[in-house]
Amino acid sequence: VLPSHVIRTVGEQLAKLPLNDALLVSCSKGIENYTLLRISEILKETLPDLSDERLVILSGPSHAEEVSRGIPTVLVAASTDYLSSQRVQQLFMGPNLRIYTSHDVVGVELGGSLKNVIAIAAGISDGVGCGDNTKAALMTRGMVEITRLGTALGADPITFAGLSGMGDLFVTCMSRHSRNRYLGRQIGKGRRLKTVLNKMIMVAEGVRTTQATIDLATKHHIVMPITQEVYQVLFEKKDPKAAVHDLMSRSPKAEDWG
Amino acid sequence: VLPSHVIRTVGEQLAKLPLNDALLVSCSKGIENYTLLRISEILKETLPDLSDERLVILSGPSHAEEVSRGIPTVLVAASTDYLSSQRVQQLFMGPNLRIYTSHDVVGVELGGSLKNVIAIAAGISDGVGCGDNTKAALMTRGMVEITRLGTALGADPITFAGLSGMGDLFVTCMSRHSRNRYLGRQIGKGRRLKTVLNKMIMVAEGVRTTQATIDLATKHHIVMPITQEVYQVLFEKKDPKAAVHDLMSRSPKAEDWG
Q1: What number is the ipTM of this complex?
Q2: Which residues share a beta bridge with B98?
Q3: A245 to chain B: which residues are within 8 Å by CB?
């Protein structure tokens, strides 16, 4: 995860090079605040000559430290052009790295970004002292609302049940190394966002993504109750316990992705 | 999880009572070996007067010990009759128990049963010494093949991304209390199935479910590579490391639920 201005600088530098028909593989996650652009959209803005066919998104459950140690890892490579995603599959696949192709650039990019909001929610649940039942419910229902937003933005809903959605959320919520979950846990214990952020060396991208997700949900009229509670806890000093209570006592619903 | 002969005995006892139009709420999971019936199908066999409309499946991420301690828990109640699932929703909902309704009896029942096979796979991955990346990939791709089988059996594919599928798998794979994951971890460390089962007081239902899932996959011609490897490791003394290797080196594929 890189701040969007770094992505813009990289794009501007790349624009000066003779890229010819080289593929551009994006492994970055996030949504730019205010513009609400995905990384690939930022790259296309800074690289006007880059056609969709030459852009491939590589995403999925992959702690870098594990990849570097040769731990078996499985990713998804998405492009609007099947030949490009297949090219990346062929180039990157090896004994410890398996790649699936996907046509769903929007879904794969959004899955990897939006799940950070749910990772914060899972952390808050732990910090408050809720159990595995609560966390599993937040993760599942969180993915439902992300799927709803993603579908409105043009993604294929089933993509969020795949490696860049569920898969990435699994690894984020299981690992002790996740910055977003750490931040959530501190917030759940009653610390203030500013205090927690001041103590962290690396940025928890999910904080920025929560703001961007709320903006996207408002723009596209999508109901996202878990994201809304995370937002209020992070930015409006809402008591995390009250947030859990409010989620539990919403009106009865059907399990429904529509 | 109860062995199917217990379900049959319960059904036979219930058949002697004047049930009138009472609802029957099943909270049990599993697939009967040989007959390959779901719990609700066993109940209908032993209770011939029970109409589909009076049967409700209650499932989802719910360690009983957490429910009993009042930890916030979210479940799904499925029935072919919306009024029946809504009735269960009204009866069971409270400050710490939230219920969603579903029309997908087949999907909700299968999700809660089949995920135990994937929980064993996740345990084996841990036992072998693989990382969080590997486990997250197995969980995600495991749910893809379960979704494929479930769809062939009449379930709605998206149900497996819900509380009784993904949700229940989350809680099983996060908790240290899961018997299926414990069993998988022991197997992954090189212990033999018989030795591990002899040391366990409670049954790991996933062992039986693995056999039933393989039989269902064969009958319906569904490719289930992870379940197949779990089966070979459990019952055919395949080396768990070789199983991971064989999964990683399958031919390149698209991320695809079809």
Answers
A1: 0.95
A2: B74
A3: 95
Considering Cα of A88, then A91, then A93, then A97, what sign does the dihedral take? negative
Each residue's pLDDT tens digit, B226-239: 999 999 999 999 99
Nearest to B243 by CA among B202, B198, B184: B184
Nearest CB among B61, B86, B140 relative to A137 is that of B61
C-beta of residue B96 within 8 angstroms of C-beta of residue B73: yes
Q: What is the rounded distance in angstroms from the CA atom of residue A93 to the CA atom of residue A82? A: 16
Distance from the Cα of A33 to chain B's closest Cα (Å) equals: 29
Name the residue with tokens 């990289």. A10
In the numeric block, the tokens 């809720």 are attached to A130
Show residues of chain B in contact with A71, CB under 8 Å.
130-131, 133-134
Question: B interface mutation test: which of A68, A133, A169, A251 has the most B CBs within 10 A?
Answer: A133
A61–B136: do the CB atoms touch at under 8 Å?
A: yes
Cβ distance B56 to B88 under 8 Å? yes
DSSP A160: G
Q: What are phi and psi of B114, to 5 degrees?
A: -70, -25
Q: How many whole angstroms separate alpha carbon A226 and alpha carbon A243?
A: 9
Inter-chain CB proximity A61 and B166 less than 8 Å: no
C-beta separation of A48 from A19 below 8 A: no
- DSSP, residue by residue, chain B: ---HHHHHHHHHHHHTS--TT--EEE----B-TTT--BHHHHHHHH-TT--GGGEEEEESS--HHHHHTT--EEEEEE-SSHHHHHHHHHHH-BTTEEEEEES-HHHHHHHHHHHHHHHHHHHHHHHHT--HHHHHHHHHHHHHHHHHHHHHTT--GGGGGSIIIIIHHHHHHH-TT-HHHHHHHHHHTT--HHHHHHH-SS--HHHHHHHHHHHHHHHHT---HHHHHHHHHHHS---HHHHHHHHHTSPPEE----
Taking Cα atoms as reference points, which of A74, A140, A152 lies closest to residue A110?
Answer: A152
pLDDT tens across A86-123, in order? 999 999 999 999 999 999 999 999 999 999 999 999 99
For B103-129, how does the pLDDT look when each residue is reduced to its tens digit (9 = 90+)? 999 999 999 999 999 999 999 999 999
CB-CB under 8 Å, B137 with A61: yes
CB contact under 8 A, B74 and A133: yes
- Hey, what are B193's tokens? 């199935």
Residues composing chain B:
258
Q: What is the pTM of this model?
A: 0.95
How far does the CA of residue A44 sit from the closest CA of chain B (Å)?
Answer: 25
What tokens appear for A117 in the block? 């909001």
- The owner of tokens 């486990």 is B135
Q: What are phi and psi for residue A55, nearest 5 degrees?
A: -105, 130
